[in-house]
């Protein structure tokens, strides 16, 4: 019996299939099957009932999982306590949105590599709702997402907020400088999908004034949205930090909104039941690197 086998047992239990555990552990499905087979032979028990592609813990498997998780956690804690980050290897998966990636991705890579030289870092750029789903099922280890987060299974540490503004090309906006929900609603709008925190923010701003926009187009990429906005086709709501260069160059105009649009608070999120204590250290590094300046 070894830690690798127990870790594999824990990940299959969490993710529900051998193939998902193999992907998470960066190994083959055959290797995962071999580890479980060897563990079952040594313990003389059946750990999983096979149901098609999916598996389900047996009664004995559920009983042993509690002990296996404790061993895996204790082993990880031992490595951390030994103060030898170089022995922490493998892959950490971090999920984040475009705006955080644009401002902090390079700094994150450098900070994690400095602390854990043997670590490979895999980034998943996606929308809020998808990142939280991936975090919940163990597909990523840490997520940087906009809040609020209402999930008792997720630990979320705030790292600051970003101001958001309406932007558009001068040709589309004319002399507009200060806008109300009703004035924006009369313009063509492009937005992130309904799963995005930015869409929720936009929808709330309109709803508070009892306004329904005439036309909204949807896109899943902020860079593409800005490309469309620069062309004078639509206005869009964007984090102010992301459009600074466009505003400074005169390509886009940032509008003052009345009432003001609430800022989006960002969080570094991890699972409460994370198996690896090193995840808390990864999250602390990410929190420090990604901390946002005060909103002015």
Q: How would you describe this protein?
A:
With 296 residues, this protein is α/β, with parallel strands linked by helices. The chain has helices spanning 3-15, 18-24, 29-43, 59-81, 98-115, 128-137, 170-173, 181-185, 197-208, 222-230, 244-249, 278-290; strands at residues 48-51, 54-57, 90-96, 119-125, 142-146, 154-162, 164-168, 178-179, 189-191, 216-218, 236-239, 253-257, 264-271. Strands 4-3-5-13-6 form a 5-stranded mixed β-sheet, sandwiched between helices. A 4-stranded mixed β-sheet has the order 8-12-7-11, with helices on both faces. Helix 9 (197-208) links the parallel strand 9 and strand 10. The longest helix has 23 residues, at 59-81. The radius of gyration is 23 Å and the shape is elongated. The termini are far apart. The mean pLDDT is 87.
- Widest β-sheet, arrangement of strands: 4-3-5-13-6
End-to-end Cα distance: 57 Å
Integer-rounded radius of gyration: 23 Å
pLDDT under 50 segments (min length 5)?
none
Q: Biggest sheet, in brief?
A: 5 strands, mixed
The chain-level structural class is alpha/beta
Count of DSSP E strands? 13
Q: Can you write the helix and strand succession as a string?
A: HHHEEHEHEHEEEHEHEHEHEHEEH
Multimerization state: single chain
Tell me the β content.
15-25%
User: How many DSSP helices?
Assistant: 12
What is the percent of helical residues?
40-55%
Mean pLDDT score: 87
Key traits:
single chain; 13 strands; four-stranded mixed sheet; five-stranded mixed sheet; 12 helices; 22% strand; 296 residues; alpha/beta; elongated
């Amino acid at each position: 019996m070894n830690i690798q086998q127990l870790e594999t047992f824990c990940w299959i239990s969490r993710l529900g299939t051998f193939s998902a555990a193999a992907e998470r552990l960066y190994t083959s499905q055959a290797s995962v099957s071999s580890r479980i087979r060897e563990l079952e032979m040594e313990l003389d028990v059946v750990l999983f009932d096979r149901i098609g592609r999916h598996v389900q813990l047996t009664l004995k498997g559920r009983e042993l999982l509690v002990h296996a998780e404790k061993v895996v956690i204790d082993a990880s804690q031992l490595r951390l306590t030994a103060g030898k980050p170089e022995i922490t290897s493998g892959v950490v998966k971090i999920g984040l949105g475009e705006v955080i990636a644009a401002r902090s991705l390079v700094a994150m890579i450098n900070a994690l590599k400095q602390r854990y030289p043997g670590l490979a870092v895999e980034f998943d750029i996606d929308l809020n709702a998808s990142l939280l789903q991936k975090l919940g099922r163990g597909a990523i280890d840490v997520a940087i997402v906009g809040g609020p987060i209402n999930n008792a299974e997720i630990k979320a540490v705030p790292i600051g907020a970003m101001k958001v503004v309406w932007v558009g090309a001068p040709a589309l906006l004319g002399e507009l400088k200060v806008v109300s929900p009703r004035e924006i609603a009369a313009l063509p709008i492009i937005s992130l999908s309904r799963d995005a925190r930015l869409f929720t923010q936009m929808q709330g701003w309109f709803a508070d004034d009892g306004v329904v926009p005439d036309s909204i187009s949807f896109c899943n990429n902020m860079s593409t949205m800005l490309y469309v906005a620069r062309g004078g086709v639509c206005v869009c709501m964007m984090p102010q930090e992301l459009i600074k260069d466009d505003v400074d160059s005169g390509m886009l105009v940032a509008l003052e909104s009345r009432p003001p649009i609430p800022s989006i608070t960002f969080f570094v999120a991890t699972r409460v039941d994370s198996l690896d204590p090193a995840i808390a250290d990864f999250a602390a590094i990410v929190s420090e690197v990604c901390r946002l300046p005060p909103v002015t």
